[in-house]
Design a protein that fits this description.
- The chain is mainly α.
- It is built from ten helices and no strands.
- The protein has helices at residues 3-14, 20-40, 45-54, 56-72, 76-114, 121-140, 146-156, 159-167, 172-178, 183-205.
- α5 (76-114) packs across α10 (183-205) and α6 (121-140) runs antiparallel to α7 (146-156).
- The radius of gyration is 25 Å and the shape is elongated.
């Protein structure tokens, strides 16, 4: 692979997902620059690669500027809604993971101190769904995968039911709360609300389909 091919592949990578016009102009400018460099200094592979490596910070800064400019073109109300949804999803994901980890920690304590059977069906569900929630939260970190992350978090929402059920008889607070007549309804509403939030966010974050002629 030639030095020019390597540089152009890098350009394709850091312009991915940006405005097609801006990305196309950037790549075209780079191709012209590479052609001029090769014409002036044939066989200068090391020089081209060195220049490309030194230009990586500038390339990443340009990408950040393009993304910022694209966001600023959105209506202010749309930006506010988008930021609010992102914050709510992040908060809900953190709460799911925290609840699962608390249940796992209490189970581990019960196993070591009280001799409770470690691999109960409920404990397995809690561990699996908590792991799923962690995976969903990780997918939220990238714009390209955040819609999938929200779907994964929706699938992990039943951790609320299993974690609280697992904490029953291990936490005096949960025992007291579960005696309330509205306990089961409240848990169902919480899970339904979380699923609705995550699915709605996934729909909002799905990439817009390109119009076809």
């Amino acid at each position: 692979m030639s030095a020019a091919d390597i540089v152009l592949r890098w350009a394709d990578l850091y312009t991915r997902g940006l405005d097609p016009v801006a990305a196309g102009d950037r790549v075209a400018e780079l191709e012209s620059d590479l052609w001029e460099h090769a014409a002036a200094e044939p066989g200068a592979r090391a020089a081209i690669l060195s220049r490309a490596i030194r230009g990586i910070p500038a390339d990443l800064a340009w990408r950040h500027e393009q993304r910022t400019a694209a966001r600023m073109l959105l209506p202010r109300s749309q930006r506010i809604v988008g930021n609010a949804v992102t914050a709510l999803v992040a908060l809900a994901a953190s709460a799911l993971i925290a609840l699962g980890l608390v249940a796992i920690a209490r189970t581990a304590y019960a196993v070591t101190e009280w001799g409770v059977r470690p691999w109960s069906e409920t404990a397995v569900w809690v561990i699996g769904l908590t792991g799923l929630a962690v995976a969903g939260a990780a997918l939220l970190l990238r714009r390209r995968t955040r819609a999938l992350g929200a779907i994964v978090l929706a699938a992990a929402s039943p951790v609320v039911h299993f974690a609280l059920y697992d904490l029953y008889n291990k936490s005096a607070t949960i025992i007291a709360l579960s005696n309330a007549s509205t306990w089961a309804i409240a848990i169902t509403l919480v899970m339904a609300s979380l699923m609705l939030l995550f699915v709605s966010a996934a729909v909002l974050w799905l990439p817009a389909r390109k119009a076809t002629a």
